[in-house]
Specification:
27% of the residues lie in helices and 25% in strands. The protein has eight helices and 21 strands. Strands 5, 6, 7, 8, 9 and 10 form a six-stranded mixed β-sheet that branches. α5 (395-403) packs across α6.
């Protein structure tokens, strides 16, 4: 259909008949045709439906319009793209100077997403301007370029250049960049909190697994290598601590922390309040509020009590965040004061819970691990406390931590084994402590000097005679 817009007496000339799809229903039909052959091969039904599912996501969700792509006699219904992962709480922010608002839908650490899909495109009025936010030079910073976030940003007030692949460099773009920079700092802090909780959870599992493995090793050693117990262990009588009246609420935590829940199963969570002296606050008038994100991860039951129950959803591979907020109302000098504290924890929705390892043979319980500054030595064993201390300020510890979790655990493994070996077998060698310290030095240096994975790729042995020169 052609509209002669420049003519004074505007008219519409048409040479097409109404499509059959609109013979009985209202709507709009868009026909994509007569493109260059190379371009036409790129515009397939699947690619077009994926693009519309993301570009028109907000409109499809608000209007619930029925959108279908017909390609080679196949009908593909376009549904709004679904994002998964931990939702960033900021959904809308206003620019300074009256340059409009920005809508954000950002998710962290989505399950099952490949590295090249970690992008945050920018849209304006339904049109995609940037494939990724890092295409703006000022925003090519952490965490946008860290491959840890994805989602989309909608800024309907931005002015598009004639090439339709960037914003016009005006006041709107400047206000957009300034506002996103403020969001960047909050986003980076949330990512750091999530990764800290994950590392804490992984390290706890490492400690438990290592202690059980070491206990199995000790039980299989010859009798002459096992340490003999002298005397009997005297159990200390529990001293009754005087009751302390807790002060106002200062901190809130959730138990359990960073746990796994099987699909469709319930899991109870408890909010625990403490004062500045770490005394539990048992005020019965404290009001609690619970929520879970994303909402499809499950349903919160008893969301106004100190203990709630999460009824997990039926989809596995979801990383949810359970958040609790506690409100304590205090009356002081005729005024009512409200104290609000918030805590959160990660929940992994899995298809099947990890099976517990079989109980190890009976034997002496291995020492506990503790990370603490110790000066120049790698580690230290305290027999009366049954604790192995690893020096977290040593240069070798820091170097291993920079190379990743695997290298750090391997280094701590060396220190742990060294201290237990020195304590149990100190009567079999002369000055074992100094010898073991040098062994740790050699192991740490070897980890820095050689890349074992690269060495294994090289051929071994002497070259063939026809290759010798």
């Amino acid at each position: 259909m052609v509209w002669l817009r420049l003519d004074r007496e505007a008219s519409i000339l048409h040479n097409v008949e109404p499509p059959n799809e609109l013979s009985k229903n209202s709507g709009c039909v868009v026909i994509v045709d007569q493109l260059e052959k190379a371009r036409m091969n790129l515009v397939t039904g699947t690619s077009l439906s994926k693009y519309l599912a993301r570009a028109c996501r907000t409109t499809l969700m608000k209007t619930a319009v029925d959108l279908t792509v017909v390609y080679q006699q196949k009908r593909l219904k376009v549904k709004p793209m679904k994002y998964e992962g931990t939702r960033f709480p900021v959904e809308e922010c206003h620019t300074k100077g009256g340059f409009g608002s920005i809508e954000l839908e950002i998710y962290l650490f989505p399950p099952g997403v490949e590295s090249d899909e970690y992008k945050v495109p920018i849209f304006t009025r339904g049109a995609k301007v940037y494939d990724d936010i890092t295409q703006i030079e000022e925003l090519d910073v952490y965490p946008w370029n860290s491959k840890k976030v994805y989602g989309q940003i909608d800024y309907p007030y931005g002015n598009i250049t004639p090439s339709r692949n960037a914003f016009v460099n005006d006041g709107f773009l400047e206000a957009f960049i300034v506002t996103i920079r403020e969001i960047t700092e909050k986003l980076g802090k949330q990512i750091e909190d999530i990764e800290t909780r994950r590392r804490k959870w992984q390290r706890k599992r490492f400690y438990e697994t290592f202690e059980k493995t070491w206990q199995q090793i000790l039980s299989k050693l010859p009798e002459e290598w096992q340490r003999k117990k002298e005397g009997q262990v005297v159990q200390k009588q529990k001293e009754e601590k005087p009751k302390v009246e807790a002060g106002p609420m200062y901190r809130l935590e959730i138990s359990p922390q960073d746990t796994q829940v099987q699909c469709g199963s319930p899991q109870a969570f408890t909010a625990k309040a403490y004062d500045t002296n770490e005394n539990p606050v048992t005020d019965p008038n404290i009001i609690y509020s619970w929520k879970v994100e994303p909402t499809n991860a499950g349903l919160i039951v008893r969301d106004q009590y100190r203990t709630c129950v999460l009824q997990a959803g039926k989809k596995e591979g979801v990383i949810a965040t359970v958040t609790a907020t506690a409100f304590q109302y205090l009356g002081e000098s005729g005024k009512e004061i409200t104290i609000a504290k918030t805590a959160s924890t990660n929940v992994w929705i899995v298809g099947q819970l990890s099976k517990r390892p079989p109980s190890p043979p009976r034997g002496d319980k291995p020492p506990f691990l503790e990370e603490i500054p110790l000066g120049d030595i790698h580690s230290k064993y305290i027999p009366n406390m049954n604790v192995v201390q690893v020096n977290n300020e040593h240069r070798d510890f820091k170097a291993a931590a920079e190379r990743g979790t695997e290298a750090l655990y391997k280094y701590m493994n060396y220190c742990y084994c060294k201290e237990i070996a020195v304590d149990r077998w100190k009567d079999l060698v002369t000055d074992p402590h100094e010898l073991s310290e040098r062994i740790i030095d050699l192991l740490a240096i070897s980890e820095l000097a050689f890349d074992w994975r690269e060495l294994t790729k090289k051929p071994r042995g002497r070259p063939a005679k026809d290759q010798e020169t």
